[in-house]
Amino acid sequence: MTAKTWRVTGLHHVAIAHGKDPVCENALTSFIGPADHTEEAPGFIERMYELGPSYVQTLEADGEGVVQRFLDNRGPGLHHVALEVDVIDAALVDLRERGVPLIDDEAREGGMGTRIAFLHPSAFGGVLVELVERTPAQAEPPSGEGEG
Amino acid sequence: MTAKTWRVTGLHHVAIAHGKDPVCENALTSFIGPADHTEEAPGFIERMYELGPSYVQTLEADGEGVVQRFLDNRGPGLHHVALEVDVIDAALVDLRERGVPLIDDEAREGGMGTRIAFLHPSAFGGVLVELVERTPAQAEPPSGEGEG
After folding, report:
1. pTM of the model
2. Where would I find the H helices in A61-143?
3. Which of A15, A67, A146, B116 has CB atoms 3.0–4.6 Å from A44's, for a disulfide?
4. Do A83 and B8 touch (CB under 8 A)?
5. ipTM value of the model?
6. Across the strands, what pairs with A111?
7. What is the pLDDT of residues B105-124, one digit of tens each?
8. Which of B11, B27, B79 sits opposite A11 (nearest CB)?
9. How far apart are CA A34 and CA A146, in angstroms?
């Protein structure tokens, strides 16, 4: 084994998938505060609830797509976990060389200006894992929490 | 509404349930490093992989119990998410008063000297959420990561 040229630096987020039921968003708002970021994606709305250097992410299906298919198969619940890495391109080169099954062979644009890639669930024995590299402007954990 | 006397202070861990298949533990060890804590519980082994102030937790079923029942129903995968709170007793008083459905009405002892309580999954629309209060000695995020 050669030395790894990348490393996991944190737990970036854990994602919850749901449909029209507002219970999950209302509970998160009550427990944590309102979502800090909201983005539209094809077939779903993505919201991020900031918790120090990590987030709880929600994926609300609002059309056909990967989130609705997950809901059809499994119902609402935890969808994936995202590990923060320092250099995602180096991680993907290394994982490809080691034969780790990937959904995304190359990094693509994620929410909030991140670069992301999903591993195939078989890589973690049935758990969908995402890798996230923050943009340089985001690389430091937020200091102000926005709640008075 | 009266002012809340407690707050969520972080994302303590996300938990993965699995059976005898070693793929998940091997992948976590490869990505993060070996588990930092291992504890035996009735029917399962709990391991904690430290990532800054948060953890990835694994629950390996090794007998009958809640983890094996989860695996029988849903297969291996994400099991719950744990939010860190500053004062768990105040949180539980508040949640009981607001009628939030709880599994644990009172805090009980968790791994690594924590105090924990599970909410009923209906509180978050189908997601099992745990509250965790660190012991005073643990209350500061770890500074050394253990990896050279």
Report:
1. 0.91
2. 66-74, 88-97
3. A67
4. no
5. 0.90
6. none
7. 999 999 999 999 999 999 99
8. B11
9. 10
